[in-house]
From TrEMBL:
InterPro entries: YbaB-like_sf, YbaB/EbfC
Localisation: Cytoplasm, Nucleoid
Role played: Binds to DNA and alters its conformation. May be involved in regulation of gene expression, nucleoid organization and DNA protection.
Name the UniProt record assigns to this protein: Nucleoid-associated protein KQS_09340
Chief subcellular location: cytoplasm
Record's subunit section: Homodimer.
Gene Ontology terms: cellular component: bacterial nucleoid; cytoplasm
Keyword set, alphabetical order: Cytoplasm, DNA-binding
NCBIfam families recorded: DNA_YbaB_EbfC (TIGR00103)
Family listed: Belongs to the YbaB/EbfC family.
Entry keyword Transmembrane: no
Record-level Gene Ontology MF annotations: DNA binding
Organism annotation: Flavobacterium indicum (strain DSM 17447 / CIP 109464 / GPTSA100-9)
Lineage: Bacteria, Pseudomonadati, Bacteroidota, Flavobacteriia, Flavobacteriales
Length: 107
């Protein structure tokens, strides 16, 4: 019985280490998003850290339009980055979870 528990604890610790490694790797996974007309471009990591922002000069002339572009484009790229982040972390967590009957958390 204790062997099973110790084995599960070891597997959980290993999974935690894999999750941390995956989080670090996601710092180098880049996601790009452009406004429909290409006037605003954003690059973000899968951990949702903005790495690059390019704003066309014509957007700098209209504060309200720039704000609208930023809101729309940031929301899109945050959604993309979050989806990648969650899928990667869920895959690692599912792979490392011990098979406990009735505990199908990651189906």
């Amino acid at each position: 019985m204790f062997g099973d528990i110790m084995g599960m604890m070891g597997k959980i610790k290993e999974t935690q280490q894999k999750i941390e490694a995956t989080k670090q790797r996601l710092n180098s996974v880049l996601v790009d998003e452009k406004s429909s007309d290409g006037l605003l471009e954003i690059t973000m990591t899968a951990n949702r850290e903005i790495k690059n922002l390019h704003i066309a000069d014509e957007l700098l002339q209209d504060k309200e339009m720039l704000e609208d572009y930023l809101i729309t484009t940031l929301n899109k790229i945050i959604t993309k980055a979050t989806n990648i982040n969650e899928a990667e972390l869920a895959a690692v967590a599912k792979e490392g979870m011990p098979n406990i009957p009735g505990m199908d958390l990651f189906k």
